[in-house]
Amino acid sequence: MDEVSARSEYRKLEESITLSPLEEQVASQRDFSGGTTEVLTLNIGPHHPATHGVLRLLVTLEGEVVRDLRPIIGYVHTGIEKTAEDKAYWKAIPVIERMDYLSYYFNALAFCGAVETLLECEVPKRAQYLRVIHLELNRIMSHLVWLGTSALDLGAMSMFWYCFREREMILDLFEQSSGQRMHTRYFQVGGVIEDIPLGFEAKLREFMAIMPGRVDQYNDLLKRNEILLQRLRGTCPLDEQSLLALGVTGPLLRASGNPWDLRKAAPYSSYEDFSFKIPVGTVGDNYDRYAVRVAEIYESVKIIEQALDGLPEGPFITEDRKIALPPRHELATSMEALIHHFKLVTEGFRVPPGEVYYPIESPRGELGCFVRSDGSAKPARVHMRDPSFVNLQATAAMTRGSYIADLIATLAMLDPILGGIDR
Amino acid sequence: MPDQVGLELIATALGEEIPGSVLETAFFRAQAGLLIAPETVRQVLAALRQSHGYRSLMSVHGVDYYPHEPRLGVHYELLDMERVDRLTVKLRVPLDQPNIESVTPDWPTANHQEREVFDMFGVHFDGHPDLRRILMPEDYEGHPQRRDFPLGGEPVLFTHNEVGSPGWTR
Fold first, then answer.
1. pTM over 0.90
2. Interface test with B, best of A115, A378, A383, A384 (most B CBs within 10 A)
């Protein structure tokens, strides 16, 4: 009896949730000439391979033409920002890394950078260079996943295997430096957790010797491929001004010809030491979005090469024992080191009260971390300005008036990561 | 970032243009912040875009200042791409009257972000074209990012066909 009533209670609640006002709104936005065409509201997702995650789209179609589109998100919301408020600053890094699951080094840097700004903590030069090496490896890795899955969406199945082959080499490097393939927790507040091990450099140089040639191969396969050109060239362009109004950053904005890149515009973590180019597109169509990202892989390899050649000697994490754990060998001999270790592991470090916003350039655009400290050992608020979350708003503007097949291609070129969108 | 003097100049100019708009300036860790009166938010952001060059709105954050009053805060991160200059506009509203004007008509990028702040903190953005929850389910009660909202204790849905005791006890 109880069971049945409980169920009907829930069903009642469920029935009260209706999307029909939304659909009417979508359907009435356009004036359809003639009055004979029928408008169809199609639900795509949340589980659909072409949505690159758990993204749901409510698409209004007139025949095969997209008239309007609404993204519905929140299916993988895990409350990471709330969880982070309950953890000491350095223990919040692992959960924050899991937001945008393809750019974990970037999530970690945005958070660590914000906390370092609050602490006024100086990061040693070697740590900054090591961070750059891993960030750029991560950028290549993220672009490889994007390229593989996007090409798969467009029917080029072998690209997926080629991209994941190279991605595996990067994950091996991550494993070598931190012990983890993904969500490495390598960046710490004040530096990185460990110096790179013996053999890392040789393996990285091997990778860098191979990678540009492999990108050439991708280009040989795709750049002048008839199918790819027909699917991407000229489809779903959006001009620079509309993109700026929608807050879109990263490769999507650069594809429309605006060279905005925080690595150049407001260098952080020693990016000013490296010489690299920013690839830009011309018209901002899907082909430009594709070309900009592929060209970025070459530039990332160049940055890694310079960072490895110029890697300075010195500590890899700040010497400030109030922030960073003491070296393991000191624990056996130094009482003070033991106390610092105990205090850091049990309570963590306290951060002066204040609010900072720390933006960096992630593979998808401006990734900003807002941290508010109330003076305790736990953050009072952590908020990620995730580029995918903001860029997703441009989907409707890009695809209105184009074919539904181009919508799938646009979604692939948009590169949304739902873990970052929902957090 | 504008330096401290630049920030004061902006604050003075804004105060002359929109009387009573600027409540406080804060220059912290080389980042400039303006605390403004909540009812002037749309005018202030428009003025900053018109006469000070801050043409991009990069982010909108919600903050809960519990136990301080007024509790809820909304931050707008403005950016001037030409001078590579950032400015944070902050405002605070009390819990019993959490209404501010939406800036989505002027800044389309604020659409999802204001919805997120509404969802997580319960700040009402008047004039927002589609103010619904965005990350939490539509029928969710409460605003989970508030500081007095507990962690854990979420009820588990879809339990009606679950057996009374788990199988491994039988």
1. no
2. A383
